[in-house]
């Protein structure tokens, strides 16, 4: 992802690279930048984002692992500093954002839903950030209806519950990223599947996010906030 960002920044005359950092670099090097992009690992992402926010720099976060408790901590830091905004984008793919929006729309019609996410074996975190966000949005859409029905979740093979939704993570060669949200109803199931077949799927969302991040105030989560979802002809 870091390399993809570097290429897109290089290709766009609106941007100039201040520094491209890895785990071996000093985080102080972000000071002086107009914008920080964080695409690292969940374990270090909060520290990087807080450092940038406290240095007065807007941040675009693509790293996974930003569940609601983490976002709540970040909102506190951003409010305390009263400075730049942070845009957290769990998935830069437009198709993935649409699939999550469709799942959120379906959430109130079904009591049972489970998520199966499959990624390449190099992915260190599970469940995926997209699955966490999807589960949280489904739960939020059902707030007055209560948790989803998920029997026997005390058994490990029933997955990890995120906001009451069981999530199952697969790591397999031959796959970039895939998510299936399966709703179970009376005499029917509804499956919403999104496949990312190459990182090219992230390019449009990255460009939109880069253009928007310096105008964001507070903590904004999701590419859906930047896209005209639901607008006729969108
Ligand atoms: N939002 C989205 O649409 C997408 C998000 N992602 C997420 O983006 C993140 C990165 O994914 P990906 O590029 O595939 O992962 P990689 O493992 O290929 O890259 C991780 C990067 O983080 C760097 N890093 C690790 N630790 C530190 C540290 N302490 N300080 C600074 N940099 C560090 C690594 O540097 P080094 O090389 O030195 O180890 C490396 O450059 C993941 O969380 C992934 O889930 C991925 C795809 C799409
Ligand atoms: O690590 C990945 O590859 C991806 N990570 C993000 C996630 O955790 O949801 C986005 C996408 O699924 C690819």
Would you write up a description of this structure?
The radius of gyration is 18 Å and the shape is globular. The model has no long low-confidence stretch (mean pLDDT 96). The protein has helices at residues 2-11, 45-54, 68-81, 94-106, 129-141, 203-213; strands at residues 36-38, 59-61, 86-88, 112-119, 160-162, 165-171, 177-185, 188-196, 219-221. The longest helix is centred in the N-terminal third of the chain and has 14 residues, at 68-81. The strands form two sheets. Strands 5-6-4-7-8 form a five-stranded mixed sheet. It has a four-stranded parallel sheet with strand order 1-2-3-9, with helices on both faces. With 234 residues, the chain is α/β, with parallel strands linked by helices. The chain contains six helices and nine strands; from the N terminus they run αβαβαβαβαββββαβ. The chain binds NADPH dihydro-nicotinamide-adenine-dinucleotide phosphate and the ligand O=C(O)C1=N[C@H](C(=O)O)C[C@H](O)C1. The ligand O=C(O)C1=N[C@H](C(=O)O)C[C@H](O)C1 is lined by residues 64, 90-91, 119, 123, 128-130, 177. Residues 96-227 form the Dihydrodipicolinate reductase C-terminal domain. Keywords: Amino-acid biosynthesis, Cytoplasm, Diaminopimelate biosynthesis, Lysine biosynthesis, NAD, NADP, Oxidoreductase. It is an enzyme of class 1 (oxidoreductase).
**How much β-strand is present in the residues?**
15-25%
Present as ligands are: NADPH dihydro-nicotinamide-adenine-dinucleotide phosphate, ligand LZUJQKHR
The first-to-last residue Cα distance is 27 Å
Main beta sheet strand tally, sense and closure: 5 strands, mixed
Taking all Cα atoms into account, the compactness measure Rg is: 18 Å
Beta strand count: 9
Tertiary shape: globular
**Low-confidence parts:** none
H/E topology pattern = HEHEHEHEHEEEEHE
Class inferred from helices and paired strands: alpha/beta
For the biggest β-sheet, the strand order reads 5-6-4-7-8
| Average residue-wise pLDDT | 96
- The helix tally amounts to 6
The helix content, as a percent range, equals 25-40%
């Amino acid at each position: 992802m870091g390399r993809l960002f570097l290429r897109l920044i290089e290709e766009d005359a609106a941007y100039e690279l201040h520094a491209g950092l890895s785990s071996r670099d000093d985080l102080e090097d972000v000071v002086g930048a107009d914008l920080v992009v964080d695409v690292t690992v969940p374990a270090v992402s909060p520290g990087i984002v807080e450092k940038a926010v406290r240095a007065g720099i807007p941040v675009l976060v693509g790293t996974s692992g930003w569940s609601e408790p983490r976002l709540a901590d970040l909102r506190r830091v951003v409010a305390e500093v009263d400075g730049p905004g942070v845009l957290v984008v769990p998935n830069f793919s437009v198709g993935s954002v649409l699939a999550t929006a469709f799942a959120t729309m379906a959430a109130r019609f079904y009591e049972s839903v489970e998520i199966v996410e499959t990624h390449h074996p190099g992915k260190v975190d599970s469940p995926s950030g997209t699955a966490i966000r999807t589960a949280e949005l489904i739960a939020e859409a059902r707030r007055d209806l209560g948790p989803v029905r998920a029997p026997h979740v005390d058994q490990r093979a029933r997955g990890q519950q995120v906001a009451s939704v069981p999530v199952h993570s697969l790591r397999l060669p031959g796959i970039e990223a895939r998510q299936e949200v399966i709703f179970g109803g009376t005499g029917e199931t509804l499956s919403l599947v999104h496949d990312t077949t190459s990182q090219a799927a992230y390019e449009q969302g990255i460009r939109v996010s880069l253009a928007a991040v310096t105008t964001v105030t507070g903590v904004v989560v999701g590419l859906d906030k930047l896209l005209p979802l639901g607008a006729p002809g969108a």
